[in-house]
Amino acid sequence: xxxxxxxxxxxxxxxxxxxxxxxxxxxxxxxxxxxxxxxxxxxxxxxxxxxxxxxxxxxxxxxxxxxxxxxxxxxxxxxxxxxxxxxxxxxxxxxxxxxxxxxxxxxxxxxxxxxxxxxxxxxxxxxxxxxxxxxxxxxxxxxxxxxxxxxxxxxxxxxxxxxxxxxxxxxxxxxxxxxxxxxxxxxxxxxxxxxxxxxxxxxxxxxxxxxxxxxxxxxxxxxxxxxxxxxxxxxxxxxxxxxxxxxxxxxxxxxxxxx
Length: 259
Prior knowledge:
Blueprint: H1 4-9, H2 12-31, H3 38-50, H4 59-70, H5 75-92, E1 117-123, H6 128-140, E2 143-148, H7 158-163, H8 167-170, E3 173-175, E4 185-194, E5 203-209, H9 217-224, E6 228-231, H10 243-258
Helix pairs in contact: 2-5, 3-4, 4-5, 6-10
């Protein structure tokens, strides 16, 4: 770790870029249960507070963390204070993070993943962010495999991989057609049976449509000839929600019914 004297001697922009990284290092120490160098952290806070650039922007967070350090408060309190200060520092220099930059616990505490004969078909999804987010929900809610139409963005797209938090590498997937899907089929689309009363199958494939146009005509025809459509009741003016959010809601309901 860089010494405080060396840190103070750096150019202003360089020093300000290092501040949130150093605070993040203390977050990792607190999360890992390691010994905390309170003297260094206190000195780091002093350097931040001495920088006129941050005047009025992060002082409140610095002072709150200082008080916790002086009172030997619990590690959880210090962790929250460090996390808050780090994001204040990033916001002050215009370096606010994307969703994929947030740190998450990598495990759920389960010894193995629970999955049934539940399958998913992504029908023309163009957004890598949505594809990655859907993979993350699919991994959590028991999907055995994801099929993708040829128009769907690859799960190997860097933004899909980032938003999936690694789930694109955990969950089996392949490109395929309607003929490859595991029956029965049903589609998440407007005009269908309400999610709360829909009878989910013990095995089958849920079809998810594109962000702009929804489920394709051919896929809708296939679903209507099988189990039909399922819809999520909403109460907003827009009457629609993001496709990855809608998928997560439907998958959680299907997962619970399959247990």
